[in-house]
Amino acid sequence: MLSLSLITLSCLLTGTTALSASERTTVLNAHNNFRSQLALGKAVDKNNNAMPKGKNIYQLTYSTSLETSAQNWANGCVFEHSGAEDKGRTSMLLFLTKPLHQL
Length: 103
Fold this sequence. Notes:
- There is one protein chain.
- With 103 residues, the protein is an all-alpha fold.
- The protein has a domain at 1-69.
- The protein has helices at 2-14, 21-39, 64-75, 89-94.
- The longest helix has 19 residues, at 21-39.
- Keywords: Signal.
């Protein structure tokens, strides 16, 4: 996790969003290492309790085209607080028990 934190800090300080090839490898290896530990039943949670053995946990590969697509999407995000008129919308939708047209 230290590597991922350093990459994030580096992006924040430099304004860089793209990962280098070595950073991609570091992130991918960290994810796959944890997934492997989980699949083998050797992973522990934040309280150091053993987590249950995972099933169907396959090795990940890195997609630079998906990275580009995600970055393009993120570039369109507006990073500011919502106004008062937007409060409550998400929580209301999370608890609907019927489709909207049936309300």
